[in-house]
C-alpha cells in the first residue's frame, strides 16, 4: 500500500475511518500533554481522512504489539506540499499515551521520513521536509535531532497556537530540516553551517569599532575585536599586532559561523592577515574587507586581499548605508 511501511516495533499507514475509535481514545488520554503545543481534537479524524490529498498527507504510527492498549503511537501530518523545483513540505506530529517517551514514535517518524523521500507512488518523492518547533519544546527538538534533522533557522511569531502557558498567541519557532540527499541521516549529526568572515580595516581613529559593531549586528555574526583582545594581551603597548592577530585568527578558526574581524592591520600586514585567514579556514581572496576611511586621504589603504568596500566614516553610517555595506559584504563572501 502507498505511504505505508513496517518497522521492528511499529508500522505506518494512512488514516482511515476504521481508526476513529483508537484515535479518539489516544488523543483524549494525551490531551494534557498535547495541549501545551496544539489544539487537540479527539473528534477530528474524519476531517483529516477527508482532507488527504497530494498537498496534505497524514501518517498513523501503530504499535505492532499493542497488547490491551489502543495501539495508536502517534500521528504525523505533512502539509504545505509544494512540487516543481521546490519539492518541499512541512511536518507536524504528536505522540500518544501510553507510548510517548518510549522511543516507539521516533521509530515511526523515521519510517515516515523515509516515505517522504521515497519515489512515487509508494512515497512522496520530496527533496526537503521541515519541522517547525517552539524553542521551549525541547522534547520535540530532541526527537528531530535524534533523527538527524539540523537546526536551520528561526522564524518570529510563526504560528498562532498555544504555548506552555495555555494561551493562543503568535509563537516563535525554530526550523529543523532534512534533505533527501541527507537521508538516511546520522542521529544527532553536526550541522554543516555556512561560515562568513568580514574584515574591518582602517587607521587608528578611523571609526572601525563603530562600523564593525553595526556590521556584526546586521549580519548576525560574532564580533572579534582587536581592541577587546588587546586588553587581555600583556605588554601590548605599543600593540603587538602579530600577537593580537594570532589570537583573533584562533578565535575565528573556532567560530562555526565565522565573524566580523576588527583588526589593527595596515597594508604592510597583508602577509600576516593572509596566513591567519587561511589558517582559520577561509580563502583570503573571497573575504570582503570593509575599509574605514575617515579622511578620504588614507595613504595606508586597504589590505586588498579580497573585495574591498570603502566607507567614509567622517559621518556615522545611516541605516541605509549600513545595509548596503552588509549586502556588499554578503555578496562578496558568497561569490564563487
Ligand atoms: C514531541 C513528541 C512527539 C516526542 O515523542 P516521544 O514519544 O517523546 O519521542 P520518543 O520517545 O520516540 O523520543 C525519541 C528520541 O527523542 C529524544 N528526546 C526526547 N526528548 C528529548 C529531550 N528533552 N532532549 C533531548 N532529546 C530528547 C530521545 O532521547 C530519543 O532519542 P534517542 O533514541 O537517541 O535517545 C511528544 O513529546 C509529544 O507528543 N509532544 C506533544 C506534542 C508536540 O510537541 N508535538 C510536536 C510539535 S513541534
From TrEMBL:
MF term (GO), any: protein-N-terminal-alanine acetyltransferase activity
Family of this protein: Belongs to the acetyltransferase family. RimJ subfamily.
SUPFAM superfamilies membership: Acyl-CoA N-acyltransferases (Nat), P-loop containing nucleoside triphosphate hydrolases
All copies of domain N-acetyltransferase, residue ranges: 9-150
InterPro entries xref list: Acyl_CoA_acyltransferase, GNAT_dom, N-acetyltransferase, P-loop_NTPase
Keyword Transferase carried by entry: yes
Gene Ontology, cellular component aspect: cytoplasm
Protein name in UniProt: Ribosomal-protein-alanine N-acetyltransferase
Record key words, sorted: Acyltransferase, Transferase
Domain of life of the source: Bacteria
Pfam families listed in its UniProt record: Acetyltransf_3
Record flagged with keyword Transferase: yes
Amino acid at each position: 500500500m502507498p505511504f505505508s511501511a513496517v518497522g521492528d516495533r511499529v508500522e505506518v499507514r494512512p488514516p482511515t475511518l476504521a481508526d476513529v475509535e483508537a484515535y479518539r481514545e489516544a488523543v483524549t488520554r494525551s490531551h494534557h500533554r498535547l495541549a501545551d503545543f496544539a489544539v487537540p481534537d479527539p473528534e477530528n479524524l474524519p476531517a483529516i481522512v477527508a482532507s488527504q490529498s497530494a498537498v496534505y498527507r497524514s501518517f498513523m504510527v501503530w504499535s505492532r504489539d499493542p497488547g490491551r492498549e489502543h495501539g495508536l503511537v502517534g500521528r504525523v501530518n505533512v502539509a504545505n506540499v509544494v512540487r516543481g523545483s521546490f519539492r518541499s513540505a512541512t511536518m507536524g506530529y504528536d505522540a500518544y499515551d501510553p507510548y510517548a517517551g518510549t522511543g516507539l514514535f521516533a521509530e515511526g517518524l523515521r519510517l515516515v521520513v523515509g516515505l517522504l523521500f521515497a519515489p512515487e507512488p509508494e512515497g512522496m518523492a520530496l527533496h526537503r521536509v521541515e519541522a517547525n518547533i517552539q524553542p521551549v519544546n525541547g522534547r520535540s527538538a530532541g526527537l528531530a535531532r535524534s533523527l538527524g534533522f539540523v537546526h536551520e533557522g528561526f522564524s518570529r511569531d510563526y504560528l498562532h497556537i498555544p504555548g506552555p502557558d495555555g494561551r493562543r498567541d503568535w509563537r516563535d519557532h525554530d526550523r529543523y530540516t532534512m534533505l533527501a540527499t541527507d537521508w538516511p541521516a546520522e542521529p544527532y549529526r553536526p550541522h554543516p553551517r555556512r561560515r562568513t568572515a568580514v574584515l574591518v580595516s582602517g587607521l587608528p581613529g578611523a571609526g572601525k569599532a563603530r562600523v564593525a559593531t553595526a556590521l556584526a549586528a546586521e549580519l548576525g555574526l560574532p564580533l572579534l575585536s582587536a581592541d577587546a583582545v588587546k586588553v587581555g594581551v600583556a605588554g601590548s603597548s605599543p600593540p603587538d599586532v602579530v600577537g593580537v592577530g594570532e589570537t583573533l585568527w584562533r578565535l575565528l578558526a573556532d567560530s562555526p559561523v565565522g565573524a566580523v574581524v576588527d583588526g589593527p592591520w595596515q597594508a604592510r600586514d597583508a602577509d600576516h592577515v593572509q596566513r591567519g585567514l587561511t589558517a582559520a579556514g577561509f580563502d583570503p581572496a573571497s573575504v570582503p574587507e570593509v575599509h574605514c576611511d575617515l579622511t578620504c586621504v588614507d595613504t595606508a589603504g586597504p589590505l586588498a586581499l579580497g573585495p574591498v568596500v570603502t566607507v567614509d566614516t567622517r559621518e556615522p553610517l545611516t541605516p541605509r548605508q549600513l545595509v548596503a555595506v552588509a549586502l556588499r559584504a554578503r555578496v562578496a563572501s558568497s561569490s564563487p
